[in-house]
Amino acid sequence: MRNLSPGGSPDPASILYSRCTLDLTSGKIAFEEVPCQNLEDVLGGIGRSLQFLGGFDIRDAYAPENPLVVNTGLLTGTEIMTGLRTYFSAYSPLKVSDQGLPAVMWSAGSGNFGSKFRWTGLDELVVVGRAEQPVYLLLSEGPQAELRPARDLLGLDTHAKIMTLAAKHPGAHFCSIGPAGENPRANYMAAVAMSTDNELKSADDKCRFAGRGGMGSVMGAKNLLAIVAQAKDRFGKVTPAVRDINRMISGGPGSAKFREKNKSGMGGTWSNYEPLEKFHVVPQNNFRPKADGKPALLFRENVEREYVVKAESCLRCGINCHKNIYEQGEAGGKGEFRAKFDYEPLNLLGTNLGIHNPTEAWQLIKRVDNLGMDAISIGTTVAYVLDYNERHPDQPLFNGATFGQFEKIRHLIDEAGHGRLPEIGRGVKRLADGLHEPGYAMQVKGLELPAYLPDTNPGFPWAIAGGHMSMATFLLLVMQPDTSLDYWVKAITERGLYQIRDDLIGLCKFSTINHKTALESIQAVTGLAIPQEDLLKAVRRTYLRGLALERKQGYADSDYTLPAQVFENPNPNLKTPNFITPEFFSELKRRVWAVFDPEIAAL
Amino acid sequence: MTVRVCLAAQFAESAGGLEVLALEGATLAAVLRDAAARHPALGTLLWRDDASLNPMVVVFLNGQDIRGGRGLATPVSAGDEVLVLSAVEGG
Predict the structure, then answer these.
(1) Which domains can be identified in chain A, with CATH numbers?
(2) Over the stretch A282-326, which tens digit does the pLDDT of each residue have?
């Protein structure tokens, strides 16, 4: 970013961002400095990419003209703790309207790739076209860009690709796809892996992932297997203001959930298991909790009887949210690294598949990471298969797997990850529609649900990029059992949508800082003094653009719904109120759209 | 006596955006009752109708989770710091 205004004015017209456009079909690479049109452009991330993608008419996510936008936020690569985010945005093969058109989607991840990307001098990379042969892109300072052949990377898993490239490009960081992304026609749920310092130093598979929406599949469809960002580290001076902000991020109340107990924390997202189980809302056997106590078998205290859990982090992050599982070593130390346990993958590749054994759970998590698949999408899709097979014992799908059958489940994941089970790899919506049993397919708008029950969250349909990262209504019912329409309309239209703020500015959501501190962070490292009102308007416009882009791709009233099971067959085991009736939901939709429709029209 | 109470995001929002409150009470229960009296919306988040603490609320006293000790009956002293958090967060 370059600000032409001498006084650090946040006037967008005086701020330029640096973009590289790569056409893989022709091999042409172009650099330009682009003047910001509005505050969203300045903030970056999806604030910019959603506007850019809105200018394209894309009817097939794998068409060469579908642009894959890789960009950063204003705080990516700065001294502000957790300012590590990279965003991948494109028309998605997975998020598809009932009319069959791909919708705009994004996925974000941390690790060290984003910082290095920005330190090359780039703010944004736009990839169009399709390479004839597998390639990787080498970005370096200047910025400069060069395409290189990548046939030797074909078939390697995400981590192996990164380590192979690390041997060729010391000091760089990397993003890569795995075998799933190499088979995009059979796998719409491929993730992009990003390297971490810890991974490169330990040689353990400790990537971070931009998992949702098949951004790795789009990358694979372009025959782009990896991107290398080669630049010197450019950590700036930690001023007193930055130091205070970082102390707030690493030790304040916002990040306490993700910190260790000995750091005034609660032990990470994994610790959601215990409070959610009190209400029997931990997804189990395809989002159908049984109230049999089995989720407790994967509580952290039980896993720690067999394994050592170490809290580790992305570079210079004091939250230490990575809860890494190691074998027990000698003298109580850690042995071999196994996998990282977070609530989402642990639930969706464990409890929700009827897997309650930590050894089996980590093997599935590791496999999914190595294959480069979104843990949410594959876990939720496989859960549907197991459910279907339990309902149809005489005509089961595939290998007949049902809940808890580890070996058969692992086989399904392996096959899907290698592109040999497209029925699974293309996601639960297509599978369930093809089987004419969509009622218990846990998806909304083509995206598989995260590990929060739709029975507890009528806000899922207004999430524009996956249920829990783009609409903060997924935990409200357990927090405050308010079932009034007024409450939910406000939750969606006034509060929940601001969940996407950090998808513009480059911070990890686990920093959990308020808007005031976010703005202080921006001012501390860029000098830009942005009024809070302006920030909130920019975030809201970005969210509304997301909805508008859904409509542009044919999303209609019928797309904005929940799995029919919620309405037709409420689960009596839940200790939360059963309130999402068809009448409630219909009125909720009417009132939410009454708020959003005029705002979308005024964009 | 007065103790400093720090509120995580959604609790602060229900207290009118205040992230730090100065509250009175001899025990944690009394302090959190004082919070409810001063900020009714916060009170509905903290307390259930049966006067029990919302099971989704976690309270730390001077950096320690109170669930392992005397819980809300824990006495507080002037200058103590109380942290009110949600037991569940996404990710």
Answers:
(1) 2-230 (3.60.9.10)
(2) 999 999 999 999 999 999 999 999 999 999 999 899 999 999 999
ipTM of this complex prediction, to 2 decimal places: 0.93
What does the alpha-carbon distance between residue B81 and residue B21 come to, in Å, rounded to a whole number? 10
What the block records as the tokens of A77 is 């690569």
Burial class of residue B8 in the structure, from the number of CB atoms within 10 Å of its CB (0-12 exposed, 13-18 middle, 19+ buried) = buried
What single DSSP character describes residue A310?
E
Domain positions in chain B: 2-86
B chain contacts of residue A264, beta-carbon cutoff 8 Å: 60, 63-64, 83
Distance from CA of B63 to the nearest CA of A (A): 5
The architecture (CATH level 2) of B2-86 comes to: Roll (3.10)
Question: How far off is chain B from A124, nearest CA to CA, in Å?
Answer: 26
Mean pLDDT, residues A568-576 taken together: 97
pLDDT in tens, A317-364: 999 999 999 999 988 899 999 999 999 999 999 999 999 999 999 999
The tens digit of pLDDT for each residue in B11-27 reads: 998 999 999 999 999 99
Convert the pLDDT of each residue in B62-77 to its tens digit: 988 998 788 999 999 9
HSE, CB side, 13 Å, CA atoms: give it for residue A532: 7
Nearest to A17 by CA among A33, A3, A4: A33
Check CB contact under 8 Å for A479 and B65: no
Pair A497, A546: CB distance under 8 Å: no
Contact B55 A512 (CB under 8 A): no
Nearest to A125 by CA among A255, A17, A12: A17
A565 vs A532: CA distance, rounded Å: 41
Q: With CB atoms and an 8 Å threshold, state whether B9 touches A343.
A: no
CB-CB under 8 Å, B63 with A264: yes
Instruction: Identify the pLDDT of residue B91.
Output: 66
* CA dist., res. A394 & res. A136, Å (int): 47
3-state secondary structure of A230: strand
- Per DSSP, A44 falls in state B
- Sequence-ordered list of residues with C-beta below 8 angstroms from that of A35, at least 6 positions apart, any chain: A12, A13, A15, A16
- Determine if the pTM surpasses 0.90: yes
What single DSSP character describes residue A126? E
Q: Is B65 on the interface with A (CB under 8 A)?
A: yes
A chain contacts of residue B83, beta-carbon cutoff 8 Å: 253, 256, 264
- Asked if B58 reaches chain A (Cβ–Cβ under 8 Å), the answer is yes
C-alpha distance from B49 to closest chain A C-alpha (Å): 11
In chain A, the percentage of residues whose pLDDT exceeds 70 is 100
For Cα atoms A590, A455, A376, give the angle at the middle one, nearest 5 degrees: 105
Is A517 in CB contact (< 8 Å) with chain B? no
* Residue of A208, A261, A264 to mutate when probing chain B, most B C-beta within 10 A: A264
